[in-house]
Write a structure and sequence with these properties.
The protein is α/β, with parallel strands linked by helices. It contains 7 helices and 5 strands; from the N terminus they run βαβααβααβααβ.
Length: 205
């Protein structure tokens, strides 16, 4: 339990991860629409604004102490605050939906895999919050498919994406880099019997 969390039993928490085109949004929507899970709380809303603001201040302190300002932007600082504030918000949220898992589509694996989070200046912060989330996250569902399948899905779906017009070699290289980043975070979270990892190949979906 993190210092800002209220006492009590936390809900079951799962995160869906994978490179673009793997089917994360489809699975996420199916689970929510079918009543099998509830969406993680939205921290930007007024009621949880003070929680997020407090962690933003704490994250800024971390950035200054570790001289990470050169790699920081407001969006990245907000991502750090989100990683820190989410456990307490989930615990509160889960008390109102105790019978259902809380589902994340952009949770700790996603944010702790971003390039800014792996900067050397933030190594201590990243290690700390990987350790926290090892105790807060129950399952990660990892979706993937071959790079050529993912690239084709990105190109034909209506949703905009930076790789939509990219040549194959650029798309494949970017997808591999995203996959490698996820794998590092997953290895750290799942070590010593921590988070359970479920892998699915969606190439035939």
């Amino acid at each position: 339990m993190t210092p800002s969390e209220p006492p009590g039993r936390r809900p079951f928490v799962a995160e869906i991860v994978g490179p673009a085109g793997a089917g994360k949004s489809t699975l996420f929507d199916l689970l929510l629409e079918g009543g099998h899970a509830v969406r993680a709380p939205r921290l930007g809303r007024t009621r949880r604004g003070p929680l997020l603001a407090g962690h933003a201040v704490a994250a800024l302190g971390t950035v200054v102490r570790h001289r990470a300002l050169p790699v920081m932007t407001p969006e990245r600082l907000l991502a750090m605050a989100y990683v820190q504030a989410l456990p307490a918000a989930i615990r509160s949220h889960g008390r109102r939906h105790a019978h259902l898992p809380v589902l994340l589509d952009q949770g700790p694996v996603y944010f702790l895999s971003r390039p800014f989070a792996t900067a050397p200046q933030l190594a201590h912060w990243r290690e700390r919050w990987l350790s926290v989330w090892r105790e807060q996250l129950d399952v990660v569902v990892s979706l993937d498919a071959p790079d050529d399948v993912l690239a084709e899905r990105i190109r034909i779906r209506p949703k905009e994406h930076a790789l939509k017009q990219s040549p194959d070699e650029v798309a494949h290289s970017t997808l591999r880099a995203a996959r490698d980043a996820y794998e590092d975070a997953l290895a750290r979270l799942c070590e010593d019997g921590g988070v359970q990892l479920l892998r699915f190949d969606t190439s035939a979906a």
